[in-house]
Amino acid sequence: MREIPLSVPNLNIGIAQNLRECVETGWVSTGGRFIEEFERKVAAYAGVPDAVGCQSGTAGLHTALRILGVEPGDEVLVPTLTFIAAVNPVRYQYADPVFMDCGDDLCLDPGKLEQFCAEVCCVRDGALVNGATGKVVKAVVAVHVLGNLADMDRIMGIAGRYNLKVLEDATEALGCFWEDGRYAGRHAGTVGDFGVFSFNANKIITTGGGGMVVSRDAEGLARARYLTTTAKDDGLFFAHDDIGYNYRMLNLQAALGVSQIDELPAFIETKKRNFALYRGLLEGAEGIRVMPFAEGIRSNHWFYSLLVDDAPGTEPGARRDALMRALIGRGVQCRPVWKLVHTQKPYAAFSAYGIEKAPWYEKHVLNVPCSTNLSEEDVRYVCGLIRELASGI
Ligand SMILES: *Cc1c(COP(=O)(O)O)cnc(C)c1O
Description:
The protein is an alpha/beta fold. The protein has 11 helices and 15 strands. The protein is 35% helix and 16% strand. The longest helix has 31 residues, at 251-281.
C-alpha cells in the first residue's frame, strides 16, 4: 500500500558532510563552530541581533520563563489549544497555568485575554493579581499555531497595560512574519520579551531535536546562554553562581541546522504551492473545508488543517474521526489537532477561563500530509482519497 506520512524531515544528503566534520574533529557536543554559525544564521533570518541555541524548543521555553521571573506560585496565561510542551515549562517553574480560549485562527483569543485581565484581575502594586486565587499573574505564553500568528498587536497592548511579560512560542512559526499593522516586517518570536523556535523532526526545518531563543534584550539573551550552559562562571575551576541547565545545543544538531536554514525559503514555497493545490482540489468536497491562513501575515504554511463538518444527526466530531480512520487505513497519515491541554490529566485541576471555541476545533480539525517532500502527484492522490472517503461517511 502506498504510504503518505503527515510531516517528515526533508534532508539533503549533502548535510552528511557537516556531520562527518563533527565526527572527524570530535566536536559533537555543546561546543563547536556550527553552533555559532547556526545562531548567526537564524538571527539574521529573523532580523534580530542574536539568538541562543538549545537542545529543544521546550528547553528554550523553560529558560525564557525562568529569565522572565516566573516563580513558584505565580500564574501564567496559556492557550488550551496547543501542544502540551508550550505549557509544561510553566510547571517546571512550579507556577500555575490559567487556560485561555482560541479564536478562529486557532491562536489565543486576545478579546478574552483582555476580559480576563479587566474583569477577573486587579492591579496591585504594579502587579496583576488574579481576584479568584489571589496569585500574581506574571506572564502570557502566545503560541503561533500551525502557521498562523497570534495577534501580537493586541496581546502586546494588553500586556503593557497589565504588566504581563510575553513569551512567544514560535516553535511552529519559523518563517512567519507580519505584513500589515504595527509589526509589519517583524518575524514571529521577535515581538514579545522572548521568542522560541523549535527544530524538532516535524517542524519546518529540523536538527533532529533543537531549539533557539531570540530576544531584542541582549542582557536577557546573555542570561539564556549562561543558564543553558549550566551557569558556568569559571570553566577552569568550575565555579557556578547560579543553578543552570544542561540545555545547550549540540554541534551535531547545529551541523544539520546550518544546512537546513538555507533551504527554508524553498521549503516555504513548496508548502505554499501544495496548500494551494489542496485548496483547489478539495473545493466543493462535501462537508470539507480547508482552513485558510490568516490575512495580513506571510505564513510559513507549516501544517494544513481541514475542517470536517458533522453529518446530520451524528455526534460532534464523529465524521472527522471516521474520515481520519479511513484515511489512515488507506496509508495516509493524518491526525486530529491536540487534545486540549486543560483537559489533560496533569492539568485538570488548574483553572480555565471562557473556553468556548477550542472544544469545537478539537473535534473538527483534521491535519493532513504537509511534508515539503510531497509531490504534486502525492497531493492529488491524497485529495482524491479524501473526496472518495468523505462522500461515503
Ligand atoms: C514543537 C512544539 C514545542 C516543543 O518544541 P520541542 O523542540 O519539540 O521541544 C512547543 N510548543 C509547540 C506549540 C510546539 O509545536
